[in-house]
Amino acid sequence: MKKLYKIGGILSLHDDELQALAIPERVIQVKVQIPGADGKIKTFIGWRSQHNSALGPYKGGVRYHPNVSQDEVIALSMIMTWKNSLLQLPYGGGKAGIRVDPKSLTRAELELLSRNFIDAIYKYIGSDIDIPAPDVNTDSQVMSWFIDEYIKITGKVDLGAVTGKPVELGGISVREYSTGLGLAHIAKLAADKFLDGIEGRSVIIQGFGNLGSFAAKYLSELGAKIVGISDSKGGVLNYDGIDVNKALEVKHRTGSVINYPEGKKVTNDELLVSQCDILVPAALENVIHKYNAPKIQAKLIVEGANGPLTADADEILAHRQIPVVPDILANSGGVVGSYVEWANNKMGEIIEEEEAKKLILSRMEKAFSEIYKKYNDLGDQDLRTAAMVVAVERVVKAMRARGMI
Ligand code: NAD
Question: Which residues line ligand 1 (CB under 6 A)?
Answer without folding.
Answer: 136, 179, 206-212, 230-232, 268, 282-284, 304-306, 331, 334
